[in-house]
Structures are given as C-alpha cells and as structure tokens.
Amino acid sequence: MFHPHPPSLEESSSPHPLLEAHGQKRRRKSRFTRLALFLYLALVLPLGCMALPQAPGTPVETPVESPGETPVETPQEPEDPVTLFPVVKDPASPKYQFRAAWLPSVRNLDFPAKPGMTAAELKEAFRKILDVYELYHLNAVILQVRPSGDALYPSELNPPSVYVTGNPEGTLPFDLLEFAVTETHKRGMEFHAWFNPFRVTVEKNSASTEEILQGLSSRNYARLHPETVLRFDDRLFLNPGLPEVQKFVQDSILEVVTKYDIDAVHLDDYFYPYRSSRQNETGQTVPYLFGDDGEDAETFAAYGEGFTDIRQWRRENTYRFIKNLSAGIKEQKPYVKLGISPFGIWGHAEETQGLGSNTPVTSSETYAHTVFIDTRRWVKEELIDYILPQIYWNFGETAAPYDTLASWWAQVVEGTRVNLYIGHALYKVYDNVKSPLWKGDEIMVQQLDYNKSLPAIKGSAFFSFRHLTPQHEEFKKNAAGKASLVKNTEALKDAFTLPALIPVSAKVTPTEVPPPDHVRWENGTLSFQNGYTEFDELKKPKYFLVYQFPKEDVDPENPAYIYRKLAADPQTLTYTVNQLDSAKYRYGVSAVNRLHEESPVALLPEAP
Fold first, then answer.
1. What residue stretches are annotated with the Glycosyl hydrolase-like domain (predicted)?
2. Domain co-membership, 282 together with 377
3. Which of 148, 159, 170 is nearest to 235 (CA)?
4. Exposed (0-12), middle (13-18) or buried (19+): which is 66, by Cβ within 10 Å?
5. Tens of pLDDT along 90-102?
6. Looking at the domain assignment, is residue 57 inside a domain?
7. How many CB atoms lie within 10 A of CB 530?
C-alpha cells in the first residue's frame, strides 16, 4: 500500500421469540433415557430369565419371590433455564463495521520498525501494536507480508525480507507471519495478509538493471530471472504480461493461503507503474507514462495476439491474474477473502464514456493510462470479496473531492456481493496541516459521517498505523502537525467507542453457528463452554460475545450492549466472566464464526 501520491427482514409474530433450546435438549435426553430403559426391560431381562441348562442330578429350585419394593425414579437433571434469542441482523446497525489500519513493512514504516530486531523485540513490538488496535476498537490487521519480492515468513519462493534481516542474504529470527496471525486471532481480530504483487525495488536507482539485481538476494525471483524484469522511472518490477510471472506471483500468494490461517489476501495498488515526470530536451518537466519508451513492446508482440490496443491488453493481463488468483484461493480455502485496495480514482467520466467519476482528466487514475487495473469489472464480476479504494483527498479538493469518489464507488458495488470499505489518508492530517482543506480537529470523523449517508459503505481503513500513535518519534518534527494528529485521533477514538463486528461476506453460503453450551450463572459469575462438536471450519466459533442487556431491552443489534469479546481457544474448556451485576442487567453469550456469522444468544433468565 505505500503510495507516493497523495426491516426488509421477515418479522416474527412475537417481538422477542424465545426458544427454550436447552430445556428442549434436556427433555430430549429424558425421552431417550426412558426409551433405553424400555428396550432394556423388553429385550435384555427376558433373556436373563430364561432357564439355563442344568447339570445332571441338580435339583431344580423354585424361584423365591422377593419382597415387594417401591420403585425409585432416577433423579433427572434440572432443566437448563437458558433460552436462545435469535439475532436478526440489521445491516444499518453500527454493530457491523470493518475497521482496520494498514501496517506496512516496506521501508520499515511500521513493522518491523527497523531491520535486525531480535525475536523478543519483534514479538513485544507486535503485541504493543495490537494494543493500539484494541484501543481504537479496530477489528482487522492488514500487515504487509511480501513488500517487494521478499517475505516476512519462511518461503520456498521468496527470500527473507531485508526489512527484517537487514541484509539480502540474512535469515529470519522466527516466523513473523505465524506469530502475527496467532496473536491477532487471540484478540478476536481478522488478519489480512497484504501482498505487493509485482514490485521488485522501491527506491529510485540510476545504476544499471544488472547492477541493481545483483544487490538483491541470490534467491530473489527477479535476480534469478532477469528476463522477467521491466524498468520504469529507475525502479524495477516484474512484467505482468508474462504468464510465468503471473503464475509465480499467484503461487507466492497461495503458499501463504495454504500454510497460514489468514482471513484474507489483501493486494495494494501496484500492478503496472503509476505515471511519473522527467525533463525533456529543453529542460522542461513533462509527464512520463509507462510505455512511452516501449518498455513492454516486445512482450506485447509475443503475447498480445487479438489485441490492437496495448493498454487494453495490459488490463487483460491484470484481469486474468486476479481471476486466476481468486479461483485459486477459493479452491484452497473458500472462506479466505480476496480484497483489493486501488487508487481512489478508477477512471474519469470524460474518458470512459461516462462510466468513471466526475473528476478532471489531469488527475491520476488507474484504468486508461496507468496501473491498468479494471477494478470496476472485478467488482461487477465478483472476482473479489471486498474493495477498499484509497480516497486520499478531502472535501473540496478539485482533483478528487472525497464525496464525489465515495458516492461513485458506492454506485459501483450496488447490486453486487462485494463489500465496500474506504481507505482514509490519516497521514495527511499531519502532513497537510497547513492546507485549509486539512485543517480541523475531526477531519477523519467528518469523512466517516459522510460514509453513513451511503449504506453501501461498510467500513474504513487508515493509512498508516503509526499515525494512530501521535507520540511516535517521527511526529516531533512538526509541532503543528502533531497537535492536529492528536486531536484527530482522539476524535477517532470517540467515534469508535463501541466495538463492531466485521460485515459478513455475502459471497459465502450462510452457516448456522452452534451457540455456547453449559451456560451457567453462579455467584456473580457467567460461565459457558464451546458448543462446537463438529469438524466444519465454518461452524467453528472464532470468538464469543458476552452481552449485558438492560432488563427492558434485550437487543443484540445494539453494540452498546456488547460487554466483552472473548477469542475462542481450543485449549480452553470453560470460559468465565466475573463481577457481573444481575440485579441491573440480564446477560447472554453468543458464538461467532470466522466469517462473523453469529449464533443465537444463549440468554440467562432475569435474576429473581
């Protein structure tokens, strides 16, 4: 993601349909016991009473009838007073919001903070990062795990990241990705593995391509296969027009999908390069577009059969890559989502027969002239699960007004099963503090408030993580920017005071999640067990929600009533929550699976 630029629901007949599920279970158990006893008396006892063969000469004894006894009934367990309260989702409820922050590793922007950190330092730093996510009630971590052809995890295809090791031939101190996924899930959050698909180098370098490649790891794909590398603006990237490159990048991503328990694959906006600028023969600074110097002309000649427009061919290359990747992910793990975070402007209406946004053609875009990703098509064909456009402008900016773009993207996802989240430029609150358009104590909150007017927008992500921590060393350089960042992050905390669940992906078939079992209330302590007893990954609870309801309002759709979120732990048999006030509140607990589908709430009765 590092970017240089800026009820329609059916109602039941009763307002609160209580299902005495646990009582029903006990009654079923009682009926089963009686049936078993009947079968025993009918089948087993007669066999036992049959005359046995007697040894010769043995006298036959007349059975003596025993004195009559009063039958003693087997004591029955008391019926569980817990009832199941169905959760009828209200899509407009603030209970369902995607909330994330990008955590880049490139240039050591966020994590790791510097190369060469020890395993202990890295683990402590990541746990502290998660503390900040929890402070803001965020529910998804987007960690850059493959920043530029290297990896934060042991890989058969990509070398260890220099941002971890400090040198191209270094080794990882441990599996950062495995640790990060595990720790994130312990907090009940999603983990989105962020990949930069085609980038090879980040910084400009005027040295020859051969010299630059020699500075990379000896295991780097680009160094091993220099014929697959293109150069633009003194940076290197893999050629998306080559089938072998597409397969290599897809295999690199699927390696992670297969080996790690991630929740989503997240791709940023770097496919083909963005435009740049350079000086012409007269010394003037002029725009510089990829393809101006015929960088991929040979590839087009070899693989562009059937295309007369090289730009359309490039869009077909990225489309084919996403289509194959999407199919590959779903074949491996149907529940793993694919998300794309493109530049905020898809294309301009003036250049796309009215399909694009009403933005000036002088603004950058990603359809016609640069990057060459038809994300609108990807949404319409539902190749992805969510799209997270980077709308890194504020209201009133001529190049790309925030409201214009947010509304345009809302229209794009309309009628599809693709979730729309918005990427916000939190960093500009600090960087652009002198701009009248970015002055204010609630810039981000104003954008969030506008999002509420567009039901299609189901959440937000912020670039980047460190801007959620205004005390970061970096922010000492600009006192005014720091003051602005402090005020805006405080406002953001207030906006996210209540917890939220990530919206369910509409592309996945709904699953019934088993509610918690053995829910008990004793001496101010709520206890329960995991009711999952199957082998279905989608039914397995990933976390539990403990509700604290006012006695007069049992409403699971109100996030204010979520008292606690507990991550499911396979090593934990019984979960307990202490110091509860049953005199004032009524308590319940539900189970939520990895796709954030929620079971009915196991509701305890009111205290007498």
1. 98-433
2. yes
3. 148
4. exposed
5. 988 999 999 999 9
6. no
7. 21
